[in-house]
Amino acid sequence: MTPVILLAAEKESAEVTDWAARIGWVVGLALFVALVYWLMREGWKWRGTLQGDLPELPGAPDEPGAAKLTMTGRYHGSTTAGQWLDRIVAHGLGTRSRVELTLTDAGLDVVRPGASDFFVPAAALREARLDKGIAGKVLTEGGLLVVTWAHGERLIDSGFRSDRAAEHGAWVDAINSMINTSTTEGAER
């Protein structure tokens, strides 16, 4: 028989002789991963501190009116308007979660199980559009509903993805017509 066949026929691998070195490498790698995780967490908290000037998020009114549209899906985060990588983490806006959206005449109600809910008054809505990415989440073209709204001194883009992506177009039309209607009414006064 040839030596190659004999090597393949062996049933056991070589024994580990230096257990201390192996354990040392495993412990070192675990400490390195823990350090990286801690640094990421500190960066997240630091970003929240820098965004401390953002006012508290409004809650939904007691009587928001009848629902024009409803949607369930995912909330992918909020960014400074026009800067899709500048994530806003203050007040829990950076936390990805499931979402239930309801559009009424009063505004956009964002209910997030496991994260803080918020409400965008109709007067604060600026634009709705289809996009492909926000805050580190990239989808196919038009796979993300992005709503631009004003909060305090800042314009914010919030990204949502419906469980049924075909709904996105109706949301863009409804929000933009709502904005155009309120702008037209304000101009007539």
UniProtKB/TrEMBL annotation:
Pfam families: bPH_11
Domain PH: 54-175
Keywords: Membrane, Transmembrane, Transmembrane helix
TM stretches of this protein: 20-40
Name of the featured protein: PH domain-containing protein
UniProt organism field: Streptomyces chromofuscus
